[in-house]
Amino acid sequence: MQRLNQLDDQLEAMLAVEAEVDSEQLQQLLAQREQLLQQLMARPESLDKAEWQAAVDRTSYLLARIRHHRDMSASQLQRLQHGQRSMQVYNKFR
Which of 54-67 are b and which e, b meaning 16 or more Cβ less than 10 Å from the residue's Cβ? Predict the structure, then answer.
C-alpha cells in the first residue's frame, strides 16, 4: 500500500499543475498503478478496509484531474483548429 501511496502522490503532483502534462510519464505511472492495484486485489485478505477506501477515493480524484486535463487539451485543440481554418479563409482572399 505504501508504494501505491507514493505513485498516487507522484500522479497528484503531476496533475496539480494547469500546464501541459507529459503524457508518456503519465501513461507509465498509470500502468504501474494498475499493476500494483492488480497485485493488491490478488491478496484481499492483506488489505486494510480504510486504506483501500482511501485508495478508491484517490482513484476518483485522479480520474477527475485526468478528465480536466483532457478537456483542457481538447479545448486548446479546438481553438487551434478554428484559428487554422480562419487563416485558410483569410489566405483565399489575399
Answer: ebeebeeebeebee
